Amino acid sequence: MDWLYTFSGFIVGFVVGVTGVGGGSLMTPVLVLMFGIAPATAVGTDLLYASLTKMGGSWVHGRRGTVDWKVVKLLATGSLPAALLSMALLHYLALDEKHLKSLITSVLSVALLLTAAALLFKPYLIKLGRRPDGVMFELHAHHLTGATILTGAILGVLVTISSVGAGALGVVVLLFLYPRAPMAQIVGTDIAHAVPLTLIAGLGHAALGTVNYGLLGSLLLGSLPGIYLGSHLGIKIPDHVLRPILATMLTTIGIKLMLY
């Protein structure tokens, strides 16, 4: 079975490299639906997998200067406490396997459908940030600070319970909040923020015993070369072709998880 995990890691890594969408949107559903991994274990393992794979991306963007560390700090101000509170709540509730599975698959399916919608309507959401004369709507500084922290808190809850949200969903919200920021900076900021969030949430799941380290190693063995190859091919495929395909795939997976 290990080689199948590695092969799946390669395929998901390749798709992530091509599309730039977070692996949680694909890896967790694959583990749950294809391999029958318990949802809690799939989420916990995927969170540590995401933190390790995104460390390299964060380092590259940091070296290029395409990370707005002030925005990362604001997002983390909301997301890290939200992640810790979510883990504490899961620990306090001590749900049995059936109810924990129901909670995680429900949140996961909603997060996937939100991510699909964000991908599909990204161009239209960006247009909403502009007036008819082309001038961008922008929040006042204190409103922008609060909105960024709130965004972080919502992502913190979604990511901790489902491992989904730190990728496409985070990027779309940041594009809307910071319409003047270059795309590379938006992506770099989102990746840099995802590292501590997924690490803390992943360690929380490890404390609960919902991380499979053998599975984690097998996934990384396939995903790292997959991401490398996908990143080189991704620049050749137009965004308007990739978005609807990925959005359709995530919608289908989200609906299947609802019925799971």
Give a concise summary.
This protein is an all-alpha fold and about 260 residues long.
List the helices and strands and how they pair.
Blueprint: H1 2-19, H2 24-33, H3 39-64, H4 69-93, H5 97-120, H6 122-128, H7 141-162, H8 168-177, H9 183-208, H10 213-234, H11 239-258
Helix pairs in contact: 1-10, 2-3, 2-11, 3-7, 3-9, 3-10, 4-7, 4-9, 5-11, 7-8, 8-9
Q: What is the ordering of alpha helices and beta strands? A: HHHHHHHHHHH
Largest sheet: none
Report the structural category: mainly alpha
C-alpha termini separation: 22 Å
Number of strands: 0
Instruction: Indicate the low-confidence ranges by residue numbers.
Output: none
User: What gross morphology would you assign?
Assistant: globular
Return the domain count.
1
* Tally of contiguous helical segments: 11
Query: In angstroms, what is the radius of gyration?
Result: 17 Å
Strand content: under 5%
Round the mean pLDDT to the nearest integer and report it: 83
Helix content: over 70%
